[in-house]
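Notebook entry, structure prediction.
Reason for the run: the old model in the group folder had no record of what sequence produced it. Starting over properly, with the input documented here first.
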Amino acid sequence: MLARLLIAASVLSLATPAAADWTHKESGVSLPDAIGDMRGHGERDLSNGERQDVWIQYGTDTEPVTLYVYRSSFPNPALWFERTRTAMLDNVGAFDTAPPPRAVAVGGPAPNALRAEYPLAGTPWKATAVALVGNGEWIVKARVTSQTLDPAGVARRMDRFLAAIRFAKQPADPLPLTAPAACTEAKSFAAQPKTGDQMLGAGAALGLVAFGEARGMVSGLARKPGDWCRAELPDPAMRKLATLYRSNDGNRWTALLGDAGLSLQAIDTSPGMKDQKGGATYITRYGPTQLVATWDGVPDFVPALAGATPVLRGQAKGLATIGVGKK
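New structure, fully documented this time:
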């Protein structure tokens, strides 16, 4: 009798193994390797082994579910949802007239995410769903796409996936899930590159502000979006590339580039200088903030981006590095 019970227990333990978790230690994100019929297929690291920008594929090639976890500048889902939606318009043809995203709570009691579903047309895909979740300096992005399910179907699949996400801890002071409204008046920026020890010193000093704002640690675009407005870029190609926000007082702007946490900032550095005007541009993604260039004022976005492009491409180094890397 005892032998039969031991055999039965061993069979039961083999039939129902404990569910393993995929864990991203750096961000504190975890979820099961299997979520219903959705199974993980291994992690890819886009940050040179630092695990600051990773993704893991669930589902199948025809019913994919993808989870991205990345350390983001200005890590407010409300700011980056528009960038994600723009990328989806290019990649899978999501309808531009879909309703705005809705706020939900993921991995805790407080609303910390935005999500939406989109029908697709003219592709093998029938519908897609996307959710952006904020947790401190990290953004978790989930995509559910299907060749067979309609928007309601991918929404239910997303429900199951989001319910499985866990965070090691919740931020004590979460960022507001709001984005700036459109600017109601025009503002022009015009500055020329200018170098010198005083310009460099002021740019490096104000870089501490740029770093703190980009990380959502201090007052800035991510933490107080009401102090900013969304500016219109000059042509459709630029609008696909970036979303530009301008401070209401007109002394700085921030451009969100692409859809994975990269930003370019311009800040008036005159307060840190003596008897002359100045400005500086900065790049931030998952590592430290880089001082890219110094100017005789706050530059326009187009020349600032042109000056930053060699640094963005890894062809040149910035003038200074501000802040820390992983921590």
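Summary: The longest helix spans residues 197-214.
The old model has been moved to the deprecated folder.
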